[in-house]
Amino acid sequence: MKTLIQTLFLLGAISLFTPIDSQANPLDSCPTAACEIKKSFRQAVLQSLRQDGLIAAEAQHVKIEFEYHDIFVNEVILDYELIAKYQALFREYGIAPGPQRQIRLLSNGEIVIGDFGLQNELLTPVELEYVGR
Length: 133
Fold this sequence. Notes:
The protein is α+β, with helices and mostly antiparallel strands. It has a six-stranded antiparallel β-sheet, covered by helices on one side. The protein contains three helices and six strands. 29% of the residues lie in helices and 19% in strands. The protein is globular.
């Protein structure tokens, strides 16, 4: 079974060789409040990841695993201070940890958040909601 990234790549929705911020972002043409929250979340996460040296400026896509006691960014486990920082950031947008919780920032601008199964299928989607600090 193909992963979400593989499927999107094969369909031409994303390119694994194009930087994450260089493709047209579907959120740019969406005027709703939900889209504004997604854009705000995406910008905050990407800016923090870059500042913390967790992704390169030209990152292709980002996969964050947000478990109860650990956070992984593209398969790299964060140290305690960064875990606390990202837990607080995710809480601002109503994202709680889970045993299979992932946040995927795709190179085409899409954001996929939820619990994923063993075949990389989205089992339970999570919607963003800005709740503040």
